[in-house]
Amino acid sequence: MKNRHIGTSFDDFLQEEGLLATAEATAVKRVIAYQIEKEMEERHISKSALARMMQTSRSSLDRLLDPENASVTLLTMESAALALGRKLKVQLA
After folding, report:
1. pLDDT in tens, 20-31
2. 61: domain CATH number?
3. Cα separation of 54 and 77, whole Å?
4. Over the chain, what is the mean pLDDT?
5. SS3 label, residue 37
6. Which residues, including other chains, have CB under 8 Å from residue 18's CB and lie 6 or more apart?
7. Which residues fall within 8 angstroms of residue 37, CB to CB, at 6 or more apart?
8. Dist. CA 93–CA 90, nearest whole Å
9. Does 74 fall in a domain?
10. Residue 17 backbone dihedrals phi, psi, to 5 degrees
């Protein structure tokens, strides 16, 4: 039996399985969460302090920083970026 995935890319496999969009969204979310945490560390900003700066709850910020939680809105990510003096940049590639 010939393996139909030999010679294809992993993205092709994910696309065929209907998982590409979810995998890419999760990866982007993880990168953004990592960048926010890194910025917090560099500026010595606690989670509680950032939540206050964002005018949100600590649990909302915890969801944003959770790499497994892909259900965070762009508005929440933008709010965190602005609170850190940064801008969120989203573009089609």
Report:
1. 888 888 888 899
2. 1.10.260
3. 10
4. 87
5. helix
6. none
7. 65
8. 10
9. yes
10. -85, -5
